[in-house]
Amino acid sequence: MTRKYVVLLTFIVILISIIIVAVQPDTVDEDVLTDHTKMNSFTPSEEDNTPYTGTVKSTLFIKGSDTVLPVSMAESEAYTKLHPEKNIVVIGGGSSLGIASFIEGEVEIAMASRKMKESEYKAAVSNGIEPVETIIAWDGISVIINKDNLLESLSMDQLRMIYTGEITNWKEVGGSDENIKVLIRDSSSGTYGFFKEHVLLDKEYTIYATTEPNTEAVVRDVASDSSAVGYIGLAYMDDSVKMAGLVMEGEVFYPEADSIRKGEYPLSRSLYYYANKDTEENTKDFIGFVLSEEGQQIIADVGYLPVN
């Protein structure tokens, strides 16, 4: 067979194949269609224990103060048991981060252990958000030392000089001959700012201070190091560390309920929620729950003082 005839025969075979494909019915394999549909829709499997209601839960985002974090976690757990159709996401990170996210409209509620700054309020308003402040609890910042530390109390002046670096050894305040390890929170923490304002009187922290990422880390470090001193929210106090009393006008005060409510304890403070004035009913309903008798009992159980 010559090359000419081979080429001609090949062309005829290709032409016949094209004609056969063109006249096939326009159908899709049923198994392929079924697989494609499964990839693009949700149906609960036997292994999925989540009840499928056909609706998406409404989600409330709360972010901010690590001091307020245990309150919001406990409150959200109780609230969602009463309202299983709702979902709440609680994130820590510090008051400043929570307020910044609130200003940007990323969260419905900012948790704060300090008041919003005027600059933050103006930034929120410029973004169409009108912050409404709600005091949800009272707290007393606790100064903690190692259980082996022989000291029982410090004056506010002594505490200030320790945190500014003017006092560096425990023997200078009546303790053992040991260099003081000063622990602070990071600058995004509301407790960091409150302590700086009310104890340091806006002086700078010592450059030798150790910055801890969260309150739990402060407690762990103080518990394991006899030279350490730190400050924490009342709810984080446990028996692994010792609370130092604060001396005011010759009298020693501790962050107890009566001294906080009377304003006698020098490091008493409010704990806040910030939400938009025009917020959705979901947010208002949750804040109302926190202020309710049940919600305030949760705050007491966590370790803070109810506002009601």
Please describe the topology of this protein.
Blueprint: H1 3-22, H2 30-39, E1 58-64, H3 69-82, E2 86-91, H4 95-103, E3 109-112, H5 118-126, E4 131-140, E5 142-145, E6 153-155, H6 156-164, E7 181-185, H7 190-198, E8 210-212, H8 215-224, E9 228-232, E10 242-248, E11 251-253, H9 257-261, E12 268-276, H10 281-291, H11 293-302, E13 305-306
Structural write-up:
- The chain has 308 residues and is of the alpha/beta class.
- It has two domains: 58-139 and 270-306, Periplasmic binding protein-like II (D-Maltodextrin-Binding Protein, domain 2, 3-Layer(aba) Sandwich); 142-266, D-Maltodextrin-Binding Protein, domain 2 (3-Layer(aba) Sandwich), CATH 3.40.190.
- The protein has helices at residues 3-22, 30-39, 69-82, 95-103, 118-126, 156-164, 190-198, 215-224, 257-261, 281-291, 293-302, and strands at 58-64, 86-91, 109-112, 131-140, 142-145, 153-155, 181-185, 210-212, 228-232, 242-248, 251-253, 268-276, 305-306.
- Strands 5, 6, 7, 8, 9, 10 and 11 form a seven-stranded mixed beta sheet that branches. It has a six-stranded mixed beta sheet with strand order 2-1-3-12-4-13.
- Strand 1, helix 3 and strand 2 form a beta-alpha-beta unit.
- Helix 3 (69-82) packs across helix 11 (293-302) and helix 4 packs parallel to helix 5 (118-126).
